[in-house]
Design a protein that fits this description.
- By secondary structure, this protein is low in regular secondary structure.
- The chain has two domains: 1-41, no CATH class; 43-82, no CATH class.
- Helix content is 0%, strand content 0%.
- It is elongated, with a radius of gyration of 15 Å.
Amino acid sequence: MSIRIGNSCVNCESLTSNNKCKVHGVSVDTSYTCDSFEMKAALKNDPNCGTCARYEKVSCANPLKAASKMLCSSWAPQNATA
């Protein structure tokens, strides 16, 4: 059995906003992996509270716990360019 972290549907270009796979036409969640995986381009490789647009703002998901350098699944980039 192989363990694959990078092939998670959360990191795939084929995942739609309603958690449906564009390739296979099924609903997926964070525990799914796939051999047809296409990695999303990373906006920034430093997702922590100190680099989050929500840090110390009303929109922060965890205002009582948030601290610089802490990791969070609700992270939003301060700057994004295409």
